[in-house]
Amino acid sequence: MRTEPINRISEKGLRVWRIYGVFQTLIALLVGVGAGVINYFTGDFFWLYIVISLVVLLIAYLLIYLFPKVRWIRWRYEVREQEIELQHGLFVVKRTLVPMVRVQHVDTEQGPILRKYDLASITISTAATNHTIPALITAEADELRERISVLARVAEDDV
Amino acid sequence: MSNERYKLHPISAVIHFVKVLKEMILPLIVVVVVNGFGGSADSGGWSSYITYGIYGVVLVFLLVSGIIKWKRFSYWFEEEELRIEYGLFVKKKRYIPFERIQSLNYTEGIFHRPFGLVKVKVETAGGGPTKEAEAELTAITKEAADQIKKEMIRAKNKQPVEMDNEVEVQEVVKEQKRPVFKMSMKDLFVLASTSGGVGVFFSGLAVFASQFSNVIPYDIIYDEIVVFIRFGALIVALAIFLVLLVAWIVSVVITLINYYDFTIRVEDNEIIITRGLLEKKKITLPLSRIQGVRVVENPLRQLTGYATVIVDSAGGSLAEKDEKIRILPLVKKSKINPVLEQIFMDLHLEPSFTKVPKRSRKFFYRLDFLWIIPIAAAVIYFFYPYGLLSLLLFPLSFLFGIWQHRTAAYAVEGQQLVMRYRIFSKVTVWMEKRRIQSMTERATYFQKKKNVSTIITTIKSGVGGAITTVPHLDKADAEKILNWYEPMKPTKMQIEKEQPLN
Prior knowledge:
The complex is a heterodimer.
Chain A: E1 7-8, H1 11-41, H2 46-74, E2 76-79, E3 83-88, E4 92-99, E5 105-109, H3 112-116, E6 119-125, E7 130-137, H4 138-154
Chain B: H1 11-42, H2 46-72, E1 74-78, E2 81-86, E3 92-97, E4 101-108, E5 117-124, E6 135-141, H3 142-158, H4 163-172, E7 179-182, H5 185-194, H6 197-212, H7 218-230, H8 233-259, E8 263-267, E9 270-275, E10 280-286, E11 290-297, H9 299-303, E12 306-313, E13 324-332, H10 333-343, E14 354-355, H11 363-382, H12 384-387, H13 393-407, E15 409-413, E16 416-422, E17 426-432, E18 436-444, H14 445-449, E19 452-461, E20 464-474, H15 475-485, H16 492-498
Antiparallel strand pairs in B: 1-2, 2-3, 4-5, 4-10, 5-6, 7-8, 8-9, 9-10, 11-12, 11-17, 12-13, 14-15, 15-16, 16-17, 18-19, 19-20
Helix pairs in contact in B: 1-2, 5-8, 6-8, 11-13
C-alpha cells in the first residue's frame, strides 16, 4: 500500500470553499425563487413550494457543508526531492505523480477572495499537463514555488 | 561565410496568388451567385458592373501583391542562422538559429513539379501555440533545399552541446536509405475504401451548404420535398443511397490521391514519410521527438487483420491540427513488428501483458446501464411496441463491456510502459518512462471497495498532451505502475555527482 501524501492544504481554504458554496447556493436560491414565482402565477401548488425549498436547502447543505469538507479532507500533497504527489477528489479520488524532471514552470495565483484570507493557489506545469494545489498560505505557497523550481532545476533523468 | 542572398523561384508569386484566391473562392462564388440571381431581377444596369469591376481590382491587387511578396522575400545564411527578410508593406526579418531547427519539411505541389521545385517548411522546437520562429519558403529548387539542409547539419555538428548529440552523431554513420515500409496498392485500396473519409466529406458538404444557406430558397425546396416524398419512400432511399455512394467514391479517390506511394525511410535518426500523387508530401520526423507509439485496431479492421500505427510527436505543427501522425496508415498486423523493429530499435514489441482482474468486469458495463435505463424507459414509453427494441441496448453494452474488459491490460518492460485498452477500437500504446509527463491513479468509491483503480498517463503530443487510460486495474498492479514511474531515490553516488553543480 502506498502511503498518502502528508501535507494538507490550509484550513482557511475550507472557509474559502464554503464562501464559494454560498455564492453557488445563492444562484440556486435565485433559480428556486424564480420557479416559486412561476408556480405562484400558474398553478400555485403548495407541495411544489415545499419541494423547491427542500431542494435549495439540500443544495446549500451539500455545497456549503459537505462537499467542501470532504474535499478538504481528501486534499493532500507532498513535494519530495524527485517528485510531487497530489491526492484530491470528491467522489473520485485521484492521485497524481509528477516527476521533478518533468516540471517546466510553477505559478502562484491569488484571486480577491483568496487574497482576503492571505491564501494563494500554486500551479505546476509540465510540457503537457497542469496541476493545481488550491489554497495555501501565501508565504507557504511562495516558499513551495521557490523550492519546486530549485528542485526541478537540479533533478536529473534517471533513464 | 557567404552572405549571398537567395530568392524564391518566381513561380511562388503565382502560388501566393492561387493560395489567396483559394481561400476567397467560396465567398466570391456566393457573392456572384447572389448577384446573378437577385441583381438581375431589378436592374442589370451599371451597378452590377461596378461589383465586377471591384472583383477585377481585387484580382489585380492580389496578383501584384503576390509579385511584391516574391520580390521582397529573400533568405541567406549568416552566423549559423537562417535569416529571412520578407513583408508586403512592412519589412520583416526573421533569424532562426540552425541548432533550433527541428526539421525541414518538403512539399511538392502541382506548381512545383514541372520546375523541380519544393516548398520548404522550417520547424523549430517549442514553437508553441504562437508558432513563432517558423518559416516557409514557398518555392525553391531542390538543390537550394539541399543546401539549406547542408548548412543546417554543418552548423549543428560544429557544436555538439549535449552528450546525447554525440551519441546521435555516431549513430548517423550507418545511414539507411532503403525504405522501411512501402504501402502496397492492395493495402492502399483497402485503406481508401474503409477509411472514415465519408464523414469528412459530409462535414465538408455541410460547410459548403452553410455558405449557401442564405441563397437557398428553403420554402420552395420544402414544397418540392413534400412532392418528392409523395413519389414514395423508395425513391428517397435510392437518392440517399446514391448520395452516400458518391460521397464514398469521392472519399476513396481523395484517400488514394493523398496516400499514393506511401513510403517510410529512416535516415539520420529521422523518419521520413513521403506520400501523395498530385501533391507530393514529405514529412520529416526526428526520432528524438517521438513521445509514444500506438497501434489502433478498429473492430472492422481487426476482423480482417489490419491495424493503423500512429506516433505522437512533440511540438511543431507537422500535421497542422494535432501531432498524431499515422506512420503506418494501414498494415497487416503481422507486418507491424518487422517495420517497427527497424524504426524503433529498443522497443519491446511483444511485451507480456497483465490483464485486469476478473472482479473488475462489472465496472465496464455497469455505468453504461445508468444512462441506458432512463433512455430505454423513455423510448419504450413513447414508442410503445417498437420501443421495446431499445432493450437490446442492455445485452449489447454488456457484451461490449466484456470485450473492453478482455482488452484492457498493461505491461512494464524496463523503461517502457505498454498500455492496452478499448473504447471502440483496440489501442495499444508504447511509452517510455521519460516521455510520460505525469501519472494519475484514480479510484471511485466503488472501485475502492473492490480494490481496483484506473491508471491515467499523459504524454506530450503536439503542443498539448495525449491521455492514455487503462481502467479498473488491480490495485496492486496500479501501485506497481506508480512505483515504476516514481523517480528513483538518488543514491549517494548521484548526490556526490550533483554537488559540484550547485
